[in-house]
Write a structure and sequence with these properties.
Layout lengths: L1 H34 L7 E5 L6 H17 L3 E5 L6 H8 L7 E6 L1 H8 L10 E10 L2 E4 L8 H10 L4 E5 L5 H13 L3 E5 L3 H10 L4 E4 L1 H10 L3 E5 L26 E8 L4 H15 L2 H9 L2 E3 L5 H22 L4
Parallel strand pairs: 1-2, 1-3, 6-7, 6-8
Antiparallel strand pairs: 3-10, 4-10, 4-11, 5-8, 5-9
Helix pairs in contact: 2-9
Family: Belongs to the UPF0065 (bug) family.
Pfam families: TctC (PF03401)
Protein name: Tripartite tricarboxylate transporter substrate binding protein
Length: 333
């Protein structure tokens, strides 16, 4: 009996030693599989506008190059509504694992100034890559009888009630630049808000509103046909789509110069190594002459390949700039 009792603890100790020695062999591979390389599956790119807009088309143009660089498909998920806020809010709440990205633009930083949105543009996102910038061009109907910005301003000053301008989004690129023009030129311009650029252009060509600032790509056809006349374009240099049209800077209004950026963001706390790898993929696309050429045809100035901080710096500067500007211009929801 005594001999039987002595065998049990010894057998137990040997069993435990065997089990413990086997544990590292079991646990180490499990940890490796849990971490895994990124990306190991398809990536969702949330585009917070309807298909066809510049914020949608710019990243779509890059997708073949991005897929080649990352070795995984990038699937576009359009979530339009509330001037980018619906899609942005969705990404802000998504897991920070690199599998949900956001195509963003200037409304991400303007919206929080005038209304409640389901995200913080700085705290809820990490910048991944700046893709490019877009300008707007001031256009008028031929029936207005002006051919230059100076002639338009002279006409506006003669009007006792002021002239009307078409606006498609409160605190958007069109709204901001038009109000800056009115302030700088000392003229009165009354905004008429439309649900999209299409009905706004219809009324502009019919003469029901007198001026509109729009994407060069949107109005290039109407300008070529003579349905609209261009007066000036924002940006440091002339648009490649209309090289004969002067910039507002050339026309004597350097402050009418807000361009919109297009960039890629990820949820806050996305691991830095994933951000760096995604940034490299987008930079590779921006280094492709074919991609740059396609963007140029849209009126988009492709960004130079850059680190994520380039986009983050732009957003941080805008968050500081907009409140004072909006108060000065009287812009509110």
């Amino acid at each position: 009996m005594i001999g039987d009792k002595m065998k049990t603890p010894l057998g137990t100790r040997r069993s435990c030693l065997k089990l413990l020695s086997a544990l590292p062999l079991v646990s180490t591979p499990l940890i490796g599989r849990t971490q895994g390389p990124w990306p190991s599956k398809a990536i969702t790119l949330v585009v917070p506008v309807s298909p066809g807009g510049v914020v949608d088309l710019v990243p779509r143009t890059m997708l073949p190059s991005i897929t080649r660089s990352l070795g995984q498909a990038v699937v576009v998920d359009n979530k339009p509504g509330a001037d980018l806020a619906i899609g942005a809010g969705h990404v802000a709440r998504s897991a920070p694992d690199g599998y949900t990205l956001l195509a963003g633009s200037i409304p991400l930083t303007t919206n929080p100034v005038i209304k409640k949105v389901p995200y913080d543009p700085i705290a809820d996102f990490v910048a991944v890559s700046l893709l490019g910038t877009t300008s707007v061009v001031a256009v008028v109907p031929p029936s207005l009888g002006v051919s230059t910005l100076q002639e338009f301003i002279a006409l506006a000053k003669k009007s006792t009630e002021g002239l009307n301008y078409a606006n498609s989004a409160t605190a958007g690129l069109v709204h901001l630049n038009t109000e800056l023009l009115a302030e700088a030129a000392g003229i009165k311009l009354q905004g008429v808000l439309y649900k999209g650029q299409s009905p706004a252009l219809t009324d502009l060509m019919a003469g029901r509103v007198q001026i509109m600032l729009a994407s060069p790509a949107t109005v290039a056809g109407q300008i070529s046909s003579g349905s609209l006349r261009p007066l000036a374009v924002t940006g440091k240099s002339r648009s490649s789509l209309m090289p004969d049209v002067p910039t507002f800077i050339e026309a004597g209004f350097p402050n009418v110069n807000i361009d919109s950026w297009i960039g890629i963001l990820a949820p806050a706390k996305t691991p830095q190594d994933i951000v760096v790898k995604a940034n490299a993929a987008f930079n590779a696309a921006l280094s492709d002459p074919a991609v740059v050429g396609q963007l140029d045809k849209m009126g988009v100035v492709a960004a130079q390949p850059s680190a994520p901080m380039a986009l983050r710096s732009i957003m941080q500067a805008e968050v500081q700039r907009w409140p004072k500007m909006f108060e000065k211009l009287g812009i509110r929801a």
